[in-house]
Amino acid sequence: MTKHDSAWDGILDADETILWQGRPDPKFMFKPTMIFTTLFGMAFAGFALFWMVMAGSAGGYFWMFGLIHFAVGVGIIAGSILYPSYKRRRTWYTLTNRRAFIATVLPLLGKRLKSYPITEDTQIEFQDNAIPSVMFATETKRGKNSTYTVPIGFEHIPDARQVMTLLRSVQKDQK
Question: Where exactly are the structural domains of the chain?
Fold first, then answer.
């Protein structure tokens, strides 16, 4: 693609052209981090359920205070399992001759478009998974007691090898 449609007017520079556009595979994919989050959610919901049963055996409606905790536990379980594929369904990727764009449209967060410049110094990493990914940036996030780095890129794309080649050619053109 050498031309872009009017949706990109005001976003792309005058001499910037779109080289590739794609979307991540939205299928469910298991990641090891899901184990801890799911187990935590199960423990949270399980304890709330136990508390509600015990409070209910005393009579009255006091057991209903446990419903919010039970719902939070179920939400943690569902979120860790379902949210990643939901987010991929609402994500779009674009690569130009200068930048990589990641667009998302999520409830409560709204529309977001992030751009990442591709320079000769950009570290590009090819992740050869069942559905490969190409990473080209990092983001530092703050945890409760420390900071951690998250890789950013075009995740779970079937044509990752082609995109990797395009990214390298963009890097060469920047020299």
Answer: 1-175
